[in-house]
Amino acid sequence: MTSKDPLLVVRAYHDRWTAKDFGAAIGLLAPDLAVEVPINAYPTRDSFGEALARFGTTVKTTDMISELRADDEVMLLYDMDTEQLGRVRVAEHFTVKSGQIIRIRQIHDTWPMRAAGMGQD
Amino acid sequence: MTSKDPLLVVRAYHDRWTAKDFGAAIGLLAPDLAVEVPINAYPTRDSFGEALARFGTTVKTTDMISELRADDEVMLLYDMDTEQLGRVRVAEHFTVKSGQIIRIRQIHDTWPMRAAGMGQD
Question: How far apart are CA A71 and CA A7, in angstroms?
Fold first, then answer.
C-alpha cells in the first residue's frame, strides 16, 4: 500500500482494523501520531495501537455513513456494532502527511463506555 | 442569502446560530428536517429550532477545527465553550438540498449533558 492519497490511506486504515488486521492498520500511523479522544489518553502510537487492537477485537460490524476529504484532512462517519457497548456512532477526523496518518481525532459518546466501566478518566 | 452551495449554506447556518440570530439560522432548515442526535429527540424542525435557541444562548464561543464537503454533504468539527457544560467537541454532519439543510447529524459526548441533568433519555 504505497498510495499517498489521504482518502485512500484512511480507507486502508479503516478497512484493515475493521478486518482485525491491526498490524497493517497500525503501520499506516506515523511514529509521532497525535491522538485526541474523548475518554482515556494515548500519548504514543504504541499505546493507541494497543487500544485499537483490544477494542477493535470487540467490534462486530461497521456501517459507513459518510467519507469527506479536503486537502490533507479526511473525516469518516460510521456506526459500529460492538459486543460490549451495542451500537456506537463515531466521527473520526484524520490528518495525513506523506501517506501516513499523523493525527486522529475521535468524536463519540462516552456514556456507553463509562456505564461499562471502561473509562479511566 | 440565496446561495445553494452546500458549504456556504452550512457556514451561514453556523454563523447565524453562533451569533444568536436563531431565526435566520432556522430559516436555513428545510420544513421536513431530519435530526439525528445522541441525546433527546427532535422530530420536527420547530422542536429542533426551540432546542437550538435554548441551548445556543448558553454557548459563549465556538472554535472551528475543520470544514469538509463532498457533493451535498458537509461536516463541521468544532469546539464550543458553554456556560453550563464547559468545553464540548462537536462533529456535525449536514445534508443540503436546494439551499436548505434537510438532515443534521450531531456527534458529541453526552456525558456532560447527563451529568448536568439535561438528558431526557
Answer: 9
| Cβ separation A105–B65 shorter than 8 A | yes
Contact list in B for residue A39 (CB cut-off 8 A) is 109
Grid cell 451495542 is found at A86
A107 to chain B, any CB pair closer than 8 A? The answer is: yes
If you count residue pairs, one on A and one on B, with CB atoms under 8 Å apart, how many are there? Answer: 75
Q: What is the pLDDT of residue B120?
A: 61
Is the complex ipTM higher than 0.90? yes
In whole angstroms, what is the distance from residue A78 CA to residue A88 CA? 8
The residues, any chain, with a CB within 8 Å of residue A101's CB and separated by 6 or more, are A9, A10, A13, A28, A29, A30, A33, A94, A95
The answer on pLDDT for A2 being more than 80 is no
Among the listed residues A5, A43, A1, A49, the one whose alpha carbon sits nearest the alpha carbon of residue A29: A49
The interface residues of chain B toward chain A in range 67-86, judged by CB-CB distance below 8 A, are 67-70, 73-75, 77
pLDDT at B2 over 90: no
A27 vs A46: CA distance, rounded Å: 11
Distance from CA of B7 to the nearest CA of A (A): 12
User: Given B74, B77, B110, which is nearest A109 (Cβ)?
Assistant: B110
How far is B47 from B87, CA to CA, in rounded Å? 24
Sign of the torsion formed by the C-alpha atoms of B87, B92, B46 and B53? positive
Q: What pTM, to 2 d.p., does this model score?
A: 0.94
